[in-house]
Amino acid sequence: MYPYPFRYVRPQTLDEALRWAETDGMRFLAGGQSLLPLLNLHWAEVAGVIDLKSVGHEFNHVQWKAGEIEFGAWLTHHELATLEPLATRCPLIPRAAVHIGHPRIRRRGTVGGALAHGDPLAEWFLAFLTLNASVVTRSRAYPRRVTPIQEWLLGPLMPNLLPGEIVTGVQVSLPERASYGFLEVSRRAGDYAIMAAGVQLIWDASYHQITGCTLAISGANDLPRTFPLISKAVQGQAPGSELWRFVEDAVQKAVDPYADVLASKDYRRHLAGVLARRVCEQATQQREVLTRTT
Hints:
It comes from Sulfobacillus acidophilus (strain ATCC 700253 / DSM 10332 / NAL). By secondary structure, this protein is α+β, with helices and mostly antiparallel strands. It is 35% helix and 24% strand. It folds into three domains: 7-51, Uridine Diphospho-n-acetylenolpyruvylglucosamine Reductase, domain 2 (2-Layer Sandwich), CATH 3.30.43; 57-173, Uridine Diphospho-n-acetylenolpyruvylglucosamine Reductase, domain 3, CATH 3.30.465.10; 178-293, Enolase-like, domain 1 (2-Layer Sandwich). It has helices at residues 14-21, 35-40, 77-82, 84-89, 92-97, 103-108, 111-117, 123-130, 228-234, 241-254, 265-293, and strands at residues 7-9, 26-29, 48-51, 62-65, 68-72, 134-138, 145-148, 153-155, 158-159, 166-173, 178-185, 195-203, 210-218, 225-226. Helix 10 (241-254) runs antiparallel to helix 11. The protein is globular and about 60 Å long.
């Protein structure tokens, strides 16, 4: 199928792109891996698209600060999957990135495009929720606006974007002595996840006790969610099979999943608990690597 007719513009400066964005019905085009299929299937209709190819270099940055990283929205999924420092500093990001679509999609799709699209099953929303990240945006009215990821999705395909605004980057805090886990289940490699889970564990100086925990799951509800009460119960505990079995049981009791053609409610509830336990075990295994290198 072919999309409905629309206007195509390719601005040469960011200011020109932001001016075009103030026109009703105009949408930014980055990698095109989300927007173009919707247009071709007639699931979306726009007045025009603003191709960012000539200005994307302005959002291609990676800035390391004390305890924080900010990376640009123009970076592709593949670039984040292969960014060497992340493999040791925050392995959850490359682990999430390799689950996105197929190699061709990962090499063209951008993190900013995924955030602006707002699909709640996209791996980035779960990953950034686990990391307590923030989304950085820009418009002519607001040169820099920072939104916590918890406030970014107003609903499925409803990102917290103001009129004329563009996603420029993502801020991620990197706590000391943190380990991570990320897993997802799908029917085939490259398919949307039936369910996925991520965890960030923060350890004391001896790596024997958990001092902080963020556990998040997508695919159990309309939007990815965290489990603050379960995370609080984990704090102050030493890791072990008994603790992770508690997490599994608690998550299964806490979720009220939906059913669809891919999975029943009972299967999703079971899967939520199993994935929660396994990502915690994965993060514990990474802790053992950290103790050998410190």
